[in-house]
Structures are given as C-alpha cells and as structure tokens.
Amino acid sequence: MKKVFLVILFVMLSACSRAPLKNREDLMRPASDAPALIDNLSKESFFIALRNHIDVMKKSNQVKDPMVFGKKQIPKADYIVSLEKIFEHESDWLDYITLNFEAYEVYGRDDWADVMVTGYYEPKVPGSKTKTKDFFQPAYATPSDMLVVDLKKFASKFPKGEKLGTLTARLENKRVVPYYDRKDIDENNKLANQNLELAWLDPIDAFFIQIQGTGVVEFEDGEKLRIGYDGQNGHAYFPIGKFLTDHIPMEEMSMQRIRSHLKTLPFKEQQTILNKNPSYVFFKKLDGKALTYAGMEVEDGRTIATDLQLFPKGALAFLDIEEPVFDSEAAIVATTWERKPRLVFDQDTGGAIKGSGRVDLFYGEGDPAAQKAGVMKQKGKLFYLVPR
C-alpha cells in the first residue's frame, strides 16, 4: 500500500531545523545511547508479523540487496537469517534482539533519532455498485492510457550527474504530457465511460481512501470490497489543511476536523478544496489485507512507512512514541497521551513521507484506527536494528 498518502499530512508540518543530508552514508550511525527495547504490544502480534514479514521478504523485489544502514551494508539473505534466529528465542525475544542487534539512530528532524510520527489506517466506508445521489464519486482502477516514463533511459539528453527519476504521463497528439490531475478526473470527468469504476462512494470518503491508499467498501447488500493502491497520477501531493486555517486552528488540525468542516460545505465548495491536492490514487481489488509497498500485508501497530529513497524496506526497527487517549469513541481531541514503544517493520512508503525525520505508523481498520491516526502528530524516536 503506497502509502501512501497520509492523513495528518494535510497539515503543513514544520520544517526540519537541521542541515539537510548531503550523503546517504550519513543517514544513520550506531546509537550514541542505545535504547532499552520495550514492546507495549503483544508478543503474539510481533511473532505473527515477523513470520509474515520474512516469508514475503524472501521473494520481494522491493527489498533491496544489500540493505543499507548508513555506512553499513548487509546482504539481504544475511538479514533474513538474523530475523529467523529470533524464533529460536521466543521466551526471551527482547533480550535476544538487544544482544544480537545493534541500534542505529537516524538523522532526525532536530537531533539524532528524533522523528515526527503520523498515522494512517484503512477506512471502512459505505458505497454502491452503481451511481446514486449519495454515492456518485468513483474509486477508479488504473487507466490503461497512463504511462510511466523512465528518465534514466534518456540520461544522455540531460547534464551529467543530474538525478533522474520517472514521470507519469499520457499521449496527446503524439506528445507526452502530464497525466490528468484531480480536477480533470473528478470535475471534468476525463475518465468517464472507460469502465474503470470499482465502486461508487461519497466524494469525501473517496478522497480520504485515496489519502490512505486502501479501504473497505461496504455495499447495501452486505457484500464488502477491499481495494488497495495500484497507481498514482504523478502529481505531487498537497495538504488541503493549508487552505483551512481560517476555519481550523493549526494546532487543532486533524483528519476529523477537516472531514467535519468539508461536510458543512456545498458540494461545489468541497470539490474546489479537494482539487487543491492534484494527486490522484488508483486502486485494484484485494483478496486479503491491504498490501504494503514491499509486498507484506499491513500489520496493525507494527507497519511503518518511511522515505523510500532513504530507508531500507524490510528492516526491523524500534519506535518509541506516545499515542493518544480519548474519553469516548466519538472524541476528536485526545485527552492525554501515553508512551507506547514497540518493535516495527519498515514495509511501506508514501508520496508525502519525505525526509529522514518522518515516519507514518499503520493503525488498522475502521473507526478506532481512524480516531488515533487522525490526531497522530507526535515527536518520537526511531532506531533501526542491525545484526551485530
């Protein structure tokens, strides 16, 4: 799940005060003060996640070989063997990991290991198999006319040393042009009559499912459809919360507050605000749980998304965070925060997760997960665990 596309990133997070990284080798270093490994989730959840993680890691092309931790590189096969040995020490797993893995701290936002942690989740929303007055925004499958142009293939046409990536595009009069943006798709109906509609949703639900990169649609007949990320239109993600500060104080900005405000607006005004984010996500039907970028199924409370260009997918890490506590199921503001450190797996990424000081934590499916993810915007500490 590309994650993608993250709830709290509607908010303009403060810029990193440290100098930007110039060399990827400086991204991590052995921790100057190694953390005591504590896990506030269940041991059972860790070992279930570990088994699934290893099984997919062995065949995933998205887990690069070798795995890079700052100046240290480890063959993917060796890292897998180190993870498998944890099963031999289930009774004292945290002690075993402490003795056999070295903690590497990341080049954080304000200091080493400091990260800003947000949350994402899998929405569960009502929908329809046909267009209705309540459900009139499609969740689209990936269009067949969307192209991905690998600029590295044209390296000779660019100045030497220039970093080249990919472009998402389409053909128009035999010329390559940017793919349609949100306004083109939702307002100008550029994808109509192509049989791409997987389900019909409320427009706000459709938007937030795109932000999360996955969702479960519940139809009136009781049937459920799980959809997951399959592609993106190539336009940069832009946080619509930036345009709502006249209505929502920045310190109170959350997914819940944004949704509530949008619901008060006429549809045309809603769409104008949604169009401020030109990024658009396309979906495919899923048979099981939502999939991460690296191919593993998401694990509640243990899957993290980080910058794909900086961090090694497939790595085990320790995340020390505080989580929100609410006084009711309907509350949109946390009454307090409590420390909830845990071991996590770097499996996912997202278009808005950029830099060495950003982490997104997956909270699960439905309203309870949405409640936590919607307000999650807390400082934490991140350490990668590297076999000694």
What would you say this structure looks like, in words?
Its EC number is 4.2.2.n1. There is one protein chain. The chain has 388 residues and is α+β, with helices and mostly antiparallel strands. The chain folds into 2 domains: 7-122 and 296-387, RlpA-like domain (Barwin-like endoglucanases); 124-286, Ribosomal Protein L25, Chain P (Beta Barrel). Helices cover 19% and strands 29% of the residues. The protein is built from 8 helices and 21 strands. The protein has helices at 43-57, 76-84, 93-100, 182-187, 203-212, 255-263, 267-274, 366-375; strands at 28-30, 67-69, 72-74, 101-106, 114-122, 124-126, 137-140, 147-150, 166-172, 175-178, 197-201, 214-218, 224-232, 281-286, 303-305, 316-320, 322-325, 336-339, 342-348, 358-365, 377-387. The strands form 6 sheets. A 6-stranded mixed beta barrel has the order 5-20-15-19-16-21. It has a 4-stranded mixed beta sheet with strand order 6-12-13-14, with helices on one face. Strands 8-9-10 form a 3-stranded antiparallel beta sheet, with no helix packed on it.
Secondary structure topology:
Blueprint: E1 28-30, H1 43-57, E2 67-69, E3 72-74, H2 76-84, H3 93-100, E4 101-106, E5 114-122, E6 124-126, E7 137-140, E8 147-150, E9 166-172, E10 175-178, H4 182-187, E11 197-201, H5 203-212, E12 214-218, E13 224-232, H6 255-263, H7 267-274, E14 281-286, E15 303-305, E16 316-320, E17 322-325, E18 336-339, E19 342-348, E20 358-365, H8 366-375, E21 377-387
